[in-house]
Design goal:
EC 3.6.1.13, NDP_pyrophosphatase, ADP-ribose pyrophosphatase, NUDIX_hydrolase-like_dom_sf
Amino acid sequence: MSETDQDLTVAVPFTAADVDLAERRCLHQGFFRLEELHLRHRLFEGGWSGRVVREVHHRHDAVGVLLYDVERDSVVLVEQFRAGALDDPDSPWKVEVVAGLVERGESVAEVARREAMEEAGCEVGELIELHTYYPSPGACDERVTLFCGLIDSRGLGGVHGLDEEHEDIRVHVLPFTRAWELLQAGRLDNAMCLIAFHWLAGERASLRARR
C-alpha cells in the first residue's frame, strides 16, 4: 500500500458540515438551474479558507446504458444532435450510449429500461450496474449511474425518440470490434462511452462464456 493510500484510510474525511455556506443565489432557472454560492471551507492544514464564490449547474441525475448483444458480440449506440457540441470541429451530432435523466420517483434501473425503449426501441434483459460518478463535480452536481444492458439486437435500427422532447435519434448496431475502432479513433468521445466500453473490453470474454 502506498503512503497516499495509507493517508486516505486513516484521515478523518471532511463532510458538508465543514463548509460554511453564507449565500446561495439563483442566477438562472430553466430546464436546468444555475446557482452562485458564497462559502468558505475547512483547510487540510487547519483553519478556514477565505470567502470563495462558485457557480454550480444543477441537473437531474442521469443514467447511461451500453446495450450489448452477447450472442452476436454487437453493441447498440444512438446518434443525435447535442447543443453542447455545437462548436465541435467535426460535428455536433454525437454517437453515444442510450441515456436519460432520472425523474422523481424513478429508480435508476427503471430509467435504463425506459430510455432503451424510447431511444432504441430495445427491450433490456439483464442489467449490470457498472459505476456511479460525478462527470464534473467542480461545476455540476449531476451524478451518473452507468449500466451494461444485455439485449437481443435483431431487428433494431431506424430513427427513434419522443416528439414532445424534440428527439431525433438514429440507432446503430455495430460489432464490438468496429465500435472499439471508433472509440480508439476518437469518434466515441464522451465519458459514458469511454467508461462503459473499457469495462466491456475487460468483461466481454466472461459475458460471452455464459452462453
